[in-house]
Amino acid sequence: MLQNYISERAIVHPTVRFEGGNLVLGESQIGEQTYIGLSTIIGYPSKKSLNKIPRDINDLDSLSKGARVGSMCFIRSGSVIYEEVFIGRKLVTGHNVLIREGSRIGNNCLIGTGTMLDGSVQIGNNVRIQSSVYLPHGTIVGENVFIGPHACITNDRYPVSKKLLPVIIGNDCIIGANSTIISGVHVGDNSVIAAGSVVTKDVPPNVVVMGVPARIYLSREEYEKRKVKHEHGE
Fold it and tell me: What is the maximum alpha-carbon separation in the chain?
């Protein structure tokens, strides 16, 4: 097994299991029965903390404020969790997930392989994010949300500008695969964005939108009726 580096300042529950080659930096905390995959980093310093070029792992450790990972999480290999990240209970990740500083993740969430939370992203409870999703700085995701693979959220309507407008996704929403949500959009509770859509304006609650640009297609109620028919082969 590859050697681990665990900071003297870190608090790691004795039931935590490491695959090997792991770094736990700064004042990181890892809760009971959590599993940390091969070559995963917990508490990597943000750019503002890297006020000097680290000479070695001890320097890197001294610069980190640490991250908090809750109990019964399963963090797969190659993932990097920056300092000042808070993760609740029972997070499951794919491989090579990147969670930047200041992000907050609720309980019972899934984050798929290759997904990036690019700083100060807020995720509610019971959220499922599939592989290769991009959530930029400031994105807010409610509870019980599904985000399909390769969905892309933006936060700059006129890149590269000095005014960032985060996307807000309400509770109980479904965001389809390969969809794009433009900066500043608010997706209302219980709404669905169809796969491949480009959302350029706010989405009301309880509707399904689709297309480029996305427009209202039907109600969430009708969507659920069609789903039941599909599941029963009708």
Answer: 64
The amino acid at 52: K
**Domain of 127, in residue numbers:** 5-231
pLDDT of 106 over the 80 cut: yes
Element (H, E) at 227: helix 220-231
Beta bridge pairs of residue 193: 175, 209
Q: 18 has which bridge partners? A: 36
Distances (CA, A) of 61 to 25, 27, 145: 5, 9, 35
Helix/strand/coil for 107: coil
What does DSSP assign to residue 143?
A: S
Cα(107)–Cα(158) distance, integer angstroms = 34
Prediction pTM value:
0.96
Q: pLDDT by residue (tens digit) across 174-223?
A: 999 999 999 999 999 999 999 999 999 999 999 999 999 999 999 999 99
Instruction: Name residue 204's amino acid.
Output: P
* Closest C-alpha among 81, 92, 89 to residue 32: 89
Give the chain's domain count.
Answer: 1
What tokens does 24 get?
């736990």
Domain containing 55 — which CATH number?
2.160.10.10
